[in-house]
C-alpha cells in the first residue's frame, strides 16, 4: 500500500497505533493530550506545557517565486501559534528548521528570518534555536512550545477536539474563505483591487486568535480547533473525536466580504472547504458562546449545532435543512487528487 | 551571495543577528540558552526546560535503500536525545515531522515508526505528536523537549559550550570514528565481518550518553558538547564559544577498535573528523574529570587541554607537539565540497 492510498489522516492513525504501547508509565501519565489534537499537552511543574509543529513545503504549501520570503517566515510561525491558540494556550519559544538548497540566495534567507522575527514580536514568541540542513527544495518547519494553566485537580486546562457535547452550538471567529481566495489570486497575479490585496494578505499573513482561545477557556468552553484544513474538514475532526455529528447552516457561514467578486457558490466553497483561515471553531453551550461573544473584539458567529449522528460527519445544510454537497473536502496533502 | 558560500554556521550566525533584537524583555529574560548551543534552555516553573531539533534528509544524512527504515526512526530520535545529553538534561516528549513522497510504501513508514518507538522506550521519550506533509524526498525531523534542574539562584544548571576555562582538560566518552567507518561500509556493502557489523551499528544506532551528561553536572563540570560533526569541529565550537584554543594529542584519541582494518592514518581521520559518533566531549578541571571517570560505566579519556590562543582553534598534535593537518574538518551540510 502506498502513502497516497492512506492519506495524511490514515498515516496519523497508523502512527498512533504503532506508538500506542510506548513511553513507559511515568511519561504516559504526564502526557495529557497526545497525537490527534492541535498540539500535545503535558503536566509540567505548576503549569501545563504545550508543544506543536507545522511545516511548509515549497510548491505544496507555498508558491516559489510568488510567496515573498518575509511573508513565508511570518506564516511558518503564525500557523504554529494558531495551534497553540486552538488549545487556549500562550506560545513561548520556537525552534526553526530550514531545509535549503545550496544555491538559494542568502539575502532571501535574511528576509525569511525577518518575517519570523516580526511574527515572534507580534505573538510574544522568542526564536530559541533550530537546525539548517541541505535538501532538494525549500522547507520551513517550526516547533513551538507554549504553556497554559492547570485546573483545580492539577490537570491541564485546554481546549480539546473531543469535548463537544450533544446540543452544543458551533461558533467561528472572524470570516472564512479569504485565505483560499487569496491563494487563487496569488496564482493568477490578482487585479490589484483593495479586495484582492486583502485576500492575498489573508493568505500570506494569518492572524492566529490567541485571545479568543484563552477567553473561550475563561468562559467555560472546553472544545475548539483552528480552521486550517477547511471548516467542514476541521469540524469533522471535532465530530470524529467527540463521536457526534455537526450541522452547519449555509446562510450563517461568515463568508469573507472581500470575496464579493466571486459568485456566491464559489465564495461559499472557499469559506467551507478552502482552509488556511486560521480562525477558531469553538463549541460549547449557547450561554457560554454568548458570554464569549460579549468578551471578544473579534466577531464570533454561531453557525450550527452538535447532534447525535452515527457517522460523525459535519454537514452543510441549506435553508430547507437539505444537505449541500461540497466538492473536495479541504486539504489532505498526501492523498492523490481525485 | 549564495547559501553555499556561507555554509551552515555562517547562516546560523546571520540568523542570530537578525533575531538578536527580538522577543521582548519577558521572554528574553526567561531564555537562558538561545541559538548557538546544542539545545535551547529556559526557566520554567521550578525546572529548566530544554528543547532541540534535528533533521535527517534522504541522500544528505542517510542513504535511500541502504538505511533500514527502522534504524532511520531510531537515529532520528537518538540524535536529538544526544543534544539533550550534551546539556546534561533528561529528554521527555518528541514531535515528529515526516516529509514523504506520496509513492512511498506505507509499510516502510510503519517500520520508521517502530524505530522511533524503540528509541523512545530506550531513552524514556514519549512521541507526543507531529506533522506529516508531502514533499519531493524523505525527511524526518524531530523536535524534542526535556528538562533539567535549576541551581540555587534559580538559573538552569546545564552544560554549555562557552564554559571552558584556560587550563581545563578535554575528555571524551567512548570511542571515536566508528560511525564514520560504518557509513563507508554501508556505502560499500561491507565485508560481513564482526568489525564491519559493529561499525555499521555505530552509524545506524547511535547511543546518546545521557548518564554521562547528568553525571558531569553532578561532578561540577559545566562545559560539554556532543560529537556530531567531528571531534575537531565540535571542540572548535567550544573554543569559539569559550574564546580559547584547544590542543588534542593524537596518541590519546580513543580510536574505535573496530576500525583496525583501516590504515592508522585513515582510522585517525575517521576519529577526529568523521562525525556522528554522538559521544560527549566534556571540559573541566582535571580533578572533576577524574571524579567523573570513576562514576561512569562508559570509558572517559582525557585527550587534551584548553589553552589561551587568539584564533580559538582546536588543533591535533603529534608526540613532538607538532600540529597535524587533518583534511576536511567535519560536516557542514550546506557548504559546497572543496
What does this structure look like?
Two copies of one chain form a homodimer. Chain A is α+β, with helices and mostly antiparallel strands. Chain A has two domains: 39-157, 60s Ribosomal Protein L30, Chain: A (2-Layer Sandwich), CATH 3.30.1330.10; 161-324, Phosphoribosyl-aminoimidazole Synthetase, Chain A, domain 2, CATH 3.90.650. In chain A, 36% of the residues lie in helices and 25% in strands. Chain A contains ten helices and 14 strands. In chain A, the strands form two sheets. In chain A, strands 1, 2, 3, 4, 5, 6 and 7 form a seven-stranded mixed sheet that branches. Chain A has a seven-stranded mixed sheet with strand order 9-11-8-12-10-13-14. In chain A, β6 (139-150) and β7 form a beta hairpin. In chain A, α3 runs parallel beside α7 and α5 (178-188) packs across α6 (194-204). The longest helix of chain A has 18 residues, at 106-123. The radius of gyration of chain A is 20 Å and the shape is globular. The model of chain A has no long low-confidence stretch (mean pLDDT 91). The interface between A and B is large, with 86 and 86 residues.
Amino acid at each position: 500500500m502506498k502513502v497516497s492510498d492512506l492519506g495524511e489522516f490514515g498515516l496519523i492513525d497508523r502512527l498512533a497505533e504503532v506508538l500506542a504501547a510506548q513511553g513507559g508509565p511515568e511519561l504516559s501519565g504526564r502526557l495529557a493530550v497526545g497525537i490527534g489534537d492541535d498540539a500535545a499537552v503535558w503536566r509540567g511543574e505548576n503549569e501545563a506545557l504545550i508543544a506543536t509543529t507545522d511545516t511548509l513545503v515549497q510548491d505544496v504549501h507555498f508558491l516559489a517565486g510568488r510567496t515573498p520570503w518575509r511573508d513565508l517566515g511570518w506564516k511558518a510561525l503564525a500557523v504554529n501559534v494558531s495551534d497553540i491558540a486552538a488549545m487556549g494556550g500562550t506560545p513561548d519559544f520556537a525552534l526553526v528548521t530550514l531545509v535549503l538548497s545550496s544555491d538559494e540566495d542568502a539575502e532571501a534567507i535574511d528576509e525569511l528570518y525577518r518575517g519570523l522575527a516580526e511574527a515572534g514580536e507580534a505573538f510574544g514568541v522568542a526564536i530559541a534555536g533550530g537546525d539548517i540542513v541541505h535538501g532538494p527544495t525549500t522547507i520551513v518547519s517550526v516547533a513551538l512550545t507554549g504553556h497554559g494553566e492547570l485546573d483545580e485537580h492539577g490537570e491541564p486546562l485546554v481546549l480539546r477536539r473531543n469535548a463537544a457535547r450533544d446540543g452544543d452550538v458551533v461558533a467561528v471567529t472572524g470570516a472564512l474563505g479569504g485565505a483560499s481566495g487569496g491563494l487563487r489570486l496569488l496564482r493568477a497575479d490578482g487585479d490589484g483591487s483593495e479586495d484582492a490585496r486583502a485576500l492575498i494578505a489573508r493568505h500570506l499573513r494569518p492572524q492566529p486568535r490567541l485571545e479568543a482561545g484563552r477567553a473561550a477557556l475563561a468562559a467555560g468552553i472546553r472544545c475548539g480547533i483552528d480552521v486550517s484544513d477547511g471548516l467542514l474538514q476541521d469540524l469533522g475532526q471535532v465530530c470524529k473525536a467527540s463521536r457526534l455529528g455537526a450541522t452547519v447552516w449555509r446562510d450563517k457561514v461568515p463568508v469573507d466580504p472581500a470575496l464579493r467578486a466571486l459568485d456566491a457558490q464559489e465564495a461559499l466553497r472557499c469559506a467551507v472547504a478552502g482552509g488556511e483561515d486560521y480562525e477558531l471553531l469553538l463549541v460549547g453551550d449557547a450561554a457560554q458562546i454568548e458570554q464569549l461573544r460579549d468578551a471578544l473584539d473579534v466577531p464570533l458567529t454561531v453557525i450550527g449545532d452538535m447532534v447525535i449522528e452515527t457517522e460523525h460527519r459535519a454537514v452543510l445544510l441549506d435553508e430547507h435543512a437539505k444537505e449541500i454537497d461540497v466538492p473536495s473536502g479541504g486539504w489532505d496533502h498526501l492523498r492523490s487528487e481525485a
